[in-house]
């Protein structure tokens, strides 16, 4: 069985430099000369930006209507004016997701609280074409053209959480993969198919175990039948039975075996037919849930063709259900005729045994014993045939699953290559300060969790065993060994006793391995910051240092709108001025950043394209002003809100001038 999810020797997955690609961004080197950076992956999206947000609700942001532009948009305002709520409404409307589960839950709650039963509408401009997406508080989404648009939204404190959590770092790097949406759907589809096939294999294993038990209980029948036939032959030879009576007896006994085989075959067919009928009935019931009832008031233009297809499916299912019912009737009649035939054979045999027993004592019991064993032998033949068919089905399902798993592994390999390429491109831009690395199939938490769940209640030390198994055995290997009962292979791989391995296999076999074999095995992403002469990984950094690592990576992606609530949190002004602001000023025309901020350096030094000034009357938040950075009223608002007013700004200027003199 191939080892299909990670290599024990990690060397094949070491990050290697990739060759240059066509296209790229223009960045400025320290001396001001342009050079090509961050090429390829982040350049493949058309110009997409959020143009407008409208709120239809009775809540805090009732009737809000905000315009945005490409470039840098900065939302400013005192605390409690709705800046964070506006960003969370955009996340909610575009179903943008989050980097952490906590951020997703909190953001969703805040959006629903603001909407209070209403709806939010976002207008997205894609290369000059407007698309309108509306989402209600009940979760219903209506989108013109059926389009969805990716964007990245980070709530307050979510930036530092990205660096701390493995899933967040992986999500961050995946923003640079142009195929991330398609490969995500493909991964889920393959995992679902693999899980479904494994459930079928589990059912087949249980049925196979039952068949083997039944066969085992009849294992002595052939030998006992041969002995009983020899004894019968001996008694008949010594009796005065005629040749015709002997011949008739042997034919009746052969018929007994044939009838028993026939009855067992029909019984199996009846059982399979009942299962098929239930499946068809369930499928017919599911069609009723596919589409809502049609309205009689107006023609269903959009869903009409789909309803026609569904009606055709219903007709075919109804026809299939009718045929299945007819087949069930035929099989039931066959059962009845088979039972009558067996009764007739048994009656004739009983009469003949009585006749023979009258001529020679002992003939009746000997022939009755042969008849009983021949019936059991017929059942044994039927069980062996069923087991052979079952084995063929098991092998077919296993082969099919192996093929799907190979597809899954190929897809994971392609995703890893994309991630490695994205990391190389980021490193070309961010080294030596920040380093990004990718490790193949190092995130096995879901696999480990599936093993723990399967072993829970078994009496085994499942936490320790799960870690041991994950480090040495792939999900497909483990599933195959469990299904085939190959505990010795597990014992040798884990270096445990055969008895312990048998207990593990037995526990996993009872609980099933469908979740184990379909568990997600993902790559690991490491973000490191140069601290002195050494690199420290982001999970070992302070909160501020994590933001120092994550923000340059976020700003390196071009194409999707980027929304951040208070990116300055945990950052000192030196970093904002030296790193964050230059990154913002290097933005290209397709880029759109929407930041909510209290730090004047971001809009002013970042040369914001639009400032949105939020205000509140205590009951409702609203847009007080909106316009370019150099508009007089915007300058006044920035000075008042972000600098503390003209007097505070002038006082600081006088202080710095007095202390630093001409150097400023």
Q: Can you walk me through this structure?
A:
Residues 187-214 form a coiled coil. The protein is of the alpha/beta class and 664 residues long. It folds into three domains: 42-175 and 543-629, Rossmann fold (3-Layer(aba) Sandwich); 188-406, no CATH class; 632-664, no CATH class. It contains 20 helices and 16 strands. The chain has a six-stranded mixed β-sheet with strand order 9-13-14-5-15-16, sandwiched between helices. A five-stranded antiparallel β-sheet has the order 4-3-6-7-8, with helices on one face. The chain has a three-stranded antiparallel β-sheet with strand order 10-11-12. Helix 7 (243-287) packs parallel to helix 9 (363-430). 33% of the residues are buried. Mean pLDDT is 86; it is low at 1-46.
What share of residues are in beta strands?
5-15%
Give the neighbour order of strands across the main sheet: 9-13-14-5-15-16
Q: What's the shape? A: elongated
Structure class: alpha/beta
Low-confidence stretches: 1-46
In CATH's first tier, which class of the largest domain applies?
Answer: Alpha Beta
- Specify the CATH homologous superfamily of the largest domain: P-loop containing nucleotide triphosphate hydrolases
Provide the number of structural domains: 3
Largest sheet: 6 strands, mixed
What is the residue-averaged pLDDT? Answer: 86
Rg is: 37 Å
Roughly how much helix do the residues carry, as a percent range?
Answer: 55-70%
CATH architecture of the largest domain: 3-Layer(aba) Sandwich
Amino- and carboxy-terminal Cα gap:
71 Å
